[in-house]
Automatic annotation (TrEMBL):
Residues 939-972 form the EGF-like domain. Keywords: Disulfide bond, EGF-like domain, Glycoprotein, Membrane, Signal, Transmembrane, Transmembrane helix. SUPFAM superfamilies: E set domains (SSF81296). Gene3D superfamilies: Galactose-binding domain-like (2.60.120.260), Immunoglobulins (2.60.40.10), Laminin (2.10.25.10). This is EGF-like domain-containing protein.
Amino acid sequence: MKFYVFLLFVVIFVVIGKSEGFQFGNITSRPLQSGLNSIGNILRSDASQDYQSYLDSTNQFNILVQTQTNVYSIVLASVVGGTDGTPISLTGTLFAGIPDLTNYNILSVSCGYRAQTNIFMTESEFALVQDIGLSSQVRLYEFYSSPGNHVKWVTNPNRLIVLTKQSAISEVEIYTLASSAPNTGFTVSNNPTKTLSLNELDSVVNFMYYDGASFIYAFKDSIFYQYNVGPSATNGFELSGSSSAIVGGSTLSRGAAVATASLLYVCSQVSGMVNIEQFDPNTLSAAQMDPISGGLYTISSCLSAQYDQFKGIVFFLIQATDGTLGFISFPTSTTTFSGLTVNWIPLLNAPMSANKQSYSLGLLNPDPSIQARLSIVLPNATLIHFPYTSYCPNDCSGHGICFETTCTCDADYVLDDCSILEPTITGITRVSYSSPSNVTILGTGFINATTIEISISGIVECTNAVYISSTEIHCTTNDFTDSSLSPFQNQTLTLKLDSYESDPVDIGLIFTSPKVTSIDQNEGIVTVRGSDFYTLTFMEIKLGSQSWENIHTLSDGSGYACVLPNNADKQNLTVLAVGQPQIDPYYNQDFIPEPYLTSLSQNVIPTASTVITINGKFFNVYTGEQWYVVQGNIKTLVTPIATNTTALIYTTVNGLIPNTHISVTLKPSGMTSNLLSFTYESATVTSISQMSPETNLINIRGTNLGNSDFSVNVKDPKGSELKLIEVSNTQIDCELKNDTIKGTFTIDVIGSDTIEIPLNLKPNIDSISYPSIHGGSNITIQGEFLWNTTVAMNTGSFDDYITCNSEGLTNYPVSTLICPNIVSGTGTINYRVVSQLSGQMNLESSYDTTYHPPILSSINPTSYRQGQTVKFTITGSEFNDAVNSVSINNEDCEIIHNIEGEVICTLVPVTDPSTVTNPVSVSLDLSGVKGYNNNTLIYQKSCPDQCSNKGTCDNITGKCTCMAEYTGDNCSQLKQDSSEDEISYSTLTTVNFTLVILILIVILLCQP
């Protein structure tokens, strides 16, 4: 049953014993026995402090336990490796040399500070027992004064300090331990007694602790005392300070303490919670005092403490009110304790009445090379122990030493948890010297770091690094052109991953060999282009056997520009590495200079043909070839000057060519020179005029106008491009657009500035509508180029300028003006259209017309006869009482009444009607303007013989319409009777039919 309960305890403990970066391992529990028998309940126990290992390498970590009858020393190294549940056999009584041990009232036991030294104390004496080999040496010493029940004592390296209580005063007895070699025993001398100045031992001392350096701390009656036992202490002991244990009105119960090199940690209980106090020995002030709740458990007391100096971990063993035990642990780097929790161990409890001294925490070899274990002695004579990790990540992965929360990694290991080997570079893939390269860094121990820095000889950086694996990192090198690093020597590579830096390594970088992709000549410059070129410090270019001296690197780094010497000829061109004869040339081929044109005898030429000289270099290379000068796109064969290998005589092409370049090409080699630019003499315009009779054509005269339409552009004032009809060096003919207006025309000739010249367009009137005699009407003027002109109207002796508006979409061939609100009047009108343009002569067109002629709407009567007096009433519009005369069939009709829109006149016609064609003409004359009606009035005509009374007379035509039986001009002839003819025909038809019938009858009768 006990076994299963223990298993449950182990499982629960492992689960709750984990903390971030820190965890407990499986618990091993072993009973303590003497032979086959239990040693009985443990009254007191004490574990050695880990700082002993600093002073004595032979020290073994042990726990001293006292039972009712014996005192035992348990060497932890000999028991912690046993199997869970198996007893630990303690061979006899440790203090066998002391007779009648049961007669002693032991007040305290302690693992002595010095090696293998164990101590216990009674009311009258103390015993020092040192293990030497397999035996023990025992020394008994009488106290100079009886300590009573309040004794507490502790050792430092050379002194045994005992606080005693005699009657009404407290004393301290100091015993000096003589130095001795290991395993040879010890002696005690000097035993001065110092009376304490304060009555400090009126009650039981809760704990007494030595910090391993200068101070002893004791706690009683809520007061915390500090005693100086260091070199500066008077007589080796003096009270140096005290501190109250009253916090927030509550009294702390300080129950355990442990010291580091600089701080003292005290575990106190108050109000069912735990306070961890962090004391500064210099001020005795608590830097931290944070309450820690026990959760489901109410904390009763702090039992014991231990400090792992190698890992920087503090342990406190605490007990709940129900006896349950638990742990509080933290690294000494902790600055606040409010976040700590208690790791309770269910099923691991002890009676609350047990002496606190029966619990002790022991450490087994807290050496970084050995797994640390924590041991606990329980009152029921059981020793439990379990391994624990550090607060460092992954417990430093087995490759480092943890202190507090930080790993100090072993050599060649890195990262916070020492989990990988230190990064080491073993190589780098091929690199370009002149441009950024995507490369792979090869090595070991690479990690996916936040920051990756790679440097080549501390000059060139490899940026944009990306972790691929523990053996590969991809990055991009900068170019080396600004670095002065030699591509032929080893370079030093360093790698930094976050804060971990590799050792520098010298590696011969494999640079991509320079590659020449093109050799081009531009004028007198030869450009060597390619990739992966080194700087000129490490590259050499030769023409023939001579190094090219006048050379510089292209701005884009893609190659070099070399100035050709004037005497250059066909030679071998090589590109090679400086001082590296073992490396084959990167380029080695023949080079033939192209003909290079340097200048023209004149750079400005007329558009008409002219003779110029073309100067250049390297003409001598092409002796015997045909030379062609290319001007624009026109190729002309020329002959070089025999005595001059640097000049050509050339006659330019007549006209203007858009491509204003001259070059030379040769046959049969096909070599072509560079281009030389020239410009044409600026075009000039001397005149612009409108042609006649084609008024929509204009003529422009000047110089250097070119001879083709692609060299010239003419635009009208509206910016519309005009159609070119003819172009020559001296004149341009072009056609105006239908909507062209007068104004400034622009002429653009290739190579010349834009020329602006004004042109006034001559207007021409083709027609004008009549204005009403009453005024207020509109007139329409149509013709050519009438837009934006001024119109003058003259009805007498002076001009009256009228307002007119352009209308329509064209200004040629039909241009329209609408002139509103013409003044009233009669008679004739003269119109003048005037075109004005600043700085130009006025141009005009004149047109004569009249006011609207009279309109004769009706004439009554509508007919009349010769010789009869007739009164005519004529009505209509566009005439008034100023009608001058009325004419009817060219006979004057006397006006007897004349008002607006109506005229009455009388007429006795005498004209022979037979000479008249009806209807006759009627006209009104108003101020010399006549209006006609030729469709209404009939001049009656007589028929011959009044149609002999056998017909009707048509007075319009003078012809008869005869009755049915009469005919002739005068209807006097009787028509022939048509009915007789009709009877004869009928009779004949009847007879013929009768004969046919008779013949048919005869034929039928004759049939047999």
